[in-house]
Automatic annotation (TrEMBL):
The lineage of its organism: Bacteria, Bacillati, Actinomycetota, Actinomycetes, Kitasatosporales. SUPFAM superfamilies: PK beta-barrel domain-like (SSF50800). Residues 33-185 form the MOSC domain. This is MOSC domain-containing protein. Pfam families: MOSC (PF03473). One of its GO terms (molecular function) is molybdenum ion binding. It comes from Streptomyces xanthii. InterPro entries: MoCF_Sase_C, MOSC_domain, Pyrv_Knase-like_insert_dom_sf.
Length: 197
């Protein structure tokens, strides 16, 4: 369930609080990431020891396109609610299975605007949302048919709906653990919806 409260001193904006349910990282390329007791976020880089950490792109398909691109996918977040949704279609997905670093509960991650800051726990870690994960065919390699559950189309507009989490960059480093709260700080001005990154 999502908690919402007015932000002190900033009329018209709202703070939302959710929770970290799991953290995951992997020092080698693989689709899934093992759960950890904690992860350390490094400002401007990503998750310490994770294969996707760095100033420039680390996802292999993007490295092939242009290895000098800035890394807008330093930290991948996934909402735990998706696991219950796909379970209804017969799929079993657990934290880290889809390669995310931070699994959350209680936040509508996909509805947050570009540039939103997420304050993770009490250790000072702050990440900035850059966009949506673009689900790839590896999801079907993990479990056949799962990709269709992670990408859909809006029945009215026909627009593609990507449900496989969001991407972010680390603004302030710190340690993140399961059970940490997540405080949302919305950006000022007109909000831009998330696009694939």
């Amino acid at each position: 369930m999502q908690e919402t409260r007015e932000t002190q001193g900033t009329p018209g904006t709202r703070d939302t609080t959710g929770f970290v349910t799991a953290v995951s990282s992997n020092g080698a390329y693989s689709f899934t990431k093992p759960n950890r007791d904690s992860i350390t976020l490094l400002a401007g880089l990503g998750v310490e020891g994770d294969v996707h950490a760095g100033v420039t792109v680390k996802h292999r398909s993007r490295v092939r396109q242009d290895p000098t691109q800035p890394n807008l996918r330093q930290v991948h977040l996934m909402h735990e609610e998706l696991f219950a949704e796909v379970a209804g279609e017969g799929f079993t997905v657990r934290p880290g299975d889809l390669g995310e670093n931070v699994t959350t509960r209680g936040l509508d991650l996909l509805a947050l605007p570009t540039g939103t800051l997420l304050h993770l726990g009490d250790g000072g870690a702050v990440i900035e949302i850059t966009g949506l994960r673009n689900p790839c065919v590896q999801i079907d390699t993990f479990q056949d048919g799962l990709l269709k559950q992670c990408v859909g189309r809006d029945e009215e507009t026909g627009a593609v709906i990507r449900k496989a989490g969001i991407m972010s960059v680390v603004r302030e480093g710190g340690v993140v653990r399961p059970g940490d709260t997540i405080r949302v700080e919305l950006p000022q001005g007109p909000h831009r919806p998330l696009e694939k990154v």
